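Hi R.,

Here's the chain you asked about this morning:
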Amino acid sequence: MGIFDFLFNRKKENEGAYDKSEQPSNTRIYDNSSEKDSIDQSNNKQDLPSLDNIPENILNEAKGLVRQGAKLVAIKLIRDNTNADLKEAKDFVENIEQTLCD
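And the predicted structure, written out as tokens:
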């Protein structure tokens, strides 16, 4: 028996191992993980500011992180504290970096 056969048969054995009736009635089963992610993101980001009106303390902290070379941490900070998606936050942090280098 090859590895493929082993894995394929193992998958078939595990199918049905999870009984959806065991799921508590107050939770929703998501068929698509991106659906759950988009719902979670929309629930968490409703009250956050946009990139146009970032609080001064967050902006200063992001500038400090960029000065230290921690661009990824700065991007995460911006994303966590605004409604920005990944690309918007990355562009924003790169603009900070350009401004600091000039």
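The radius of gyration is 22 Å.

Let me know if you need anything else.
M.
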